[in-house]
Amino acid sequence: MVFDTFYALVTVLALVYAAVSRFIQNKMIDKAEMEAFQKESKELTAEMDKAQKAKDKKRIDELLQRQMEFLPRMNKMMMGQFKPMIVILAVFFLLTGVLGQLDPTVKDDIKLNLMDDGKGCDKVAGDGIFSACYKLENTNYGKWTILATMYDKGAALGHNETYFLYNPSPEDIDRYVQNPLGEEISILTDKTEYMPNDTVMIYATPANMTKGSEFIIQLAAPSPLRTDRIEAVLSNGTYFRVDLPLTIPFVNINRIYQPYTWFIIISVIVNLSLSVIMAQYDKRKKAEASKADDPQ
Fold first, then answer.
1. This prediction's pTM
2. How do residues 30-54 score in pLDDT, each as one tens digit?
3. Contact 220/138 with Cβ under 8 angstroms?
4. Which of 171, 178, 208, 292 is the most buried (most CB within 10 A)?
5. Strand (E) positions, the chain?
6. pLDDT digits (tens, 9 = 90+) for 125-138
7. pLDDT digits over 65-79, tens only?
8. First and final CA of the chain: distance in angstroms?
């Protein structure tokens, strides 16, 4: 139930964000001024094209002078439009920060330190394979994910994710994991399926060398990778997931796995819908005003 509530909360906050961002845009952005500048810019461009075709040097010089006077005003107006964007971004980070703090699928995660000391689950000390064990005793059956992150002096070097199935059922067909990030690290388990009271054996192996650095040409050669700690985060069988009513074309996505992605999708859809509605409303108002001004 708590997870359903969180999904609903993400959706509601996305709706709130869409409404707030639209309100800020309407209040802080002078659309009439922007339209006037756009109209003036088009007129200057059209007149310049006409003067150049006519090879009217005097007219071209006049228009160049007007453009020189126009650009500072345009730049000032554009800088003014950035202010509401800063406010909108602040609201976005505030709301997504709230979601991160309330996410119940993260609060129940299980953190394990993988060791390479030859003790416990680790077979050989110093062989570059970091190991840990976890006994499955709860009833959170289904897909579990394991995210392994390697560190050097507190700095994260890279991460990779895998999954296993706990007391699986025919419905457990989800195979999604996060893409690797940063320096290469492999993460695997001794099996892909487990039953209650089984122990999961987790192994992580960092790459032997860094990728170095390059920009068109190689700037720094690869060097031995230093890893003093690897942490594994088990999802405890709970993670954010929203099944879409249809598959998104081109990217072929029919399921959302991150609350931030769902938040953005909902807010974008609502914003686009509001834009269409407001455009139709403005069009109708202009048509009514034009009809009122027409004596016929």
1. 0.69
2. 666 777 777 888 888 888 888 888 8
3. no
4. 178
5. 110-114, 130-135, 142-152, 155-166, 181-182, 185-189, 193-194, 199-206, 213-215, 217-220, 229-234, 242-248, 253-256
6. 888 899 999 999 99
7. 888 877 777 777 777
8. 63
